[in-house]
Every structure is written in C-alpha cells, then in structure tokens.
Amino acid sequence: MTAAATGPLRIVRLANFVTARSGGLRTALYHLGEGYRAAGHEPVLVVPGRRDADEQHPWGRVITLAGPQLPGTGGYRLLVGRHRLTRLLAALAPDRLEVSDRFTLRWTGRWARANGVPAVMVSHESLTGLLGQWGVVPGRLRRGVADRLNRRSAETYDRIVCTTRWAAEEFTRIGVPNLDLAPLGVDLETFHPDRFDPAVRGRYAERDEVLLVHCARLSPEKRPQLAVDAVAVLRRAGVPAVLVMAGDGPMRAALRRRAAGLPVHFTGFLPDRAAVAALLASADVVLAPGPVETFGLAGLEALASGTPVVVNAASALPEVVGSAGQAAYGRPEAIAEAVTRLLARPDVQRRRAARSRAEEYSWPAAVAGFLRVQDAEPVARSVPV
C-alpha cells in the first residue's frame, strides 16, 4: 500500500452474493460504508441486482448492475461482463479498491495494479470450506486447490483482509506476507437485552418451554437442518424445546417437511431489524450451526441481545463468542448437549456474559481497522449524501 492518505478518498467496493435479503455481508458492507462516510471518505458500492440502478444511501453511493441469478441460491446474483465493469471502474477512478468476492472478481486485483490503485481483497468465507460444501473438488485435492487460488489472490492484491484468525489460517499456512486482521462489529444499540419482549416470546413458547432461535439464510452452507434435528434430540431427552427459524432460502420447503411433528416455527424473512432484535433478545439460546462461517454476525447480534449462542466448532464462531457460548461439532446430539450446558448456567449470568462479549466488537472499531488496512486516515469533514 501507499503512505496513509490525508484527504478524502473514493473507496470503490465490489461485492457479489448480496441481495435485499442477504444477511451478514450486506450488514457489514452497509455499516462499513457509513463509517467510511463519517470518516470523511466517499464509499461507492457496486453490487449485482435484477436491474441497473444508481442510488445514494446513508452508507454511500450504491451502483447496481443487472446480473444473472445463481440457480439454487435463493436469489444470489453475480457481477458479470468484465468489459462493462472495467469501464465503470475507469469512470469511477477509485483511490482505493475493496473487493468482497474471491471467485469471479479476482481479476480486479490485476486491473487495480495496472492502474496504480491500491486494492484489498476481503475474505468473507473459507475457500477450503466452500469447496467442500459445493462438492466441486474431491476431498484429497481440496486443500491444494484452495492453496493455489489463495496464493494467486495474495500475489494480485496489495493486501488480504480476514476478519478472524480462523479465516486467516488458510493464508498463514501458505506463508502469505500481505495479510491483515480486521474484525467486524455489531450494532450494540439495535441489538440489546432491553429488546426482550414477553409478547414475542409468548408468541412461540409457553412459560416453561425453552425458546431456541436459528436466524440465518436457509441455505446448505448454514446447515439449518442441524437446528431442526437438535430440537428433536432435546424433545426426546425431555427438554421442552421449541425452535423459531427466522429467515428464508432455498431449503425452506425441505426443512418444513423435516420439522413435521416438531414445535418449529418458520417466520420467513424478517425485514424489520427491530423485530429481529426482539426475537433474539427474547430467546433462551440461539443456534448457529454453519461450519464455514468466518465471522458470524448473526451470532454476535444474539450476544449483543444478551442471548448465548451454540456455534459449530468447525467454524470461526468459537473465536468470536468465546466463553459466552458453546461450541459443538456438526451433529444434532452435540448441539443438543451444548444447549443443555448453556441452560445449566444461571440466566442472569449467561445473559450478562453474552452482552459483555459483544461489547468487545463495535462498528467504529471495525471501521477504524478497515481504514487502517486501506492506509486511509479520517479527515475533518464527512461526505454529504
């Protein structure tokens, strides 16, 4: 990277796998954009969508390019048309380039280098894990393929940014020298224990029942079926558990069939963040069984709401939740056992520990970390919408 800039920078950000209903990545992009603006810089976000658009938002300018939908993903689209995107980048004339996609947009690192633009790639997923989830590479070859692709990315971009040490491991194991750690944050005001609502809790559970919540896309990489199966295990063990599946995705119909006869409620997509916060704060335990999460914003939002989380031990979430949650490998029996361990703690103690852990992650701190990686100093004024 260059020496830290002292004036306003145009930070152009490219991202795939972002929709109006997507979760953690969209949340991170929006909060970081707001933080960049507040620091006096000009964020421009380029994402795929159903149709072209160019809009101003509190998180900066958002340019949407019409892109094809990926089958079986529940609405994810891709930025395609390299020549079109190249022309757009040239017209935007970025001072910094930030890319949140490790697959189809990897070529933008070469464009940035050829045009003298400092560029970072943000690793929002484990490439090794995703190759396993997709089943496109045999297990014995998976690590080698991931290592080759990761090495090329590190050679192309000025910096690789990971949000956890877990996510960074696949780069450290191949000796990548231009690696930075910059954790994400959580909205500590929207997600707060004071959002607890007896009416919300009563909508799904009786007084003596245990309310579990799974809040994520209902898609294969999130392994939502483990949450449903864990409820079955708990009920057989005499634990009066009920489950709320908050979110939508391509697995919804199959999960409904799987949950037949169990006290499992499907809310669909919840557009109101306050409603999500109230649900999380009113739960006893939140389940986050996805094995390839590299940070897990939904789990952190649960902690901010004062609710402990059971996470997949194979993911980055044990690093994020610490002792405020429990880690279990991807079996329903292990998840059910982790739930019972959390419930054995006094309610006040486990809720206080959850909130305390979340307070270690704020969006201002996350923004400062990302600006440090960009060699971008805050400037005196903010950029108007």
TrEMBL record:
Residue span, Glycosyl transferase family domain: 208-356
Keyword Cell membrane set for record: no
Key words, A-Z: Glycosyltransferase, Transferase
Keyword Acyltransferase annotated: no
Residue intervals of the Glycosyltransferase subfamily 4-like N-terminal domain: 23-189
Pfam families: Glyco_transf_4 (PF13439), Glycos_transf_1 (PF00534)
SUPFAM superfamilies recorded: UDP-Glycosyltransferase/glycogen phosphorylase (SSF53756)
PANTHER family (UniProt xref): SULFOQUINOVOSYL TRANSFERASE SQD2 (PTHR45947)
Protein name: Glycosyltransferase
Organism from which the protein derives: Micromonospora musae
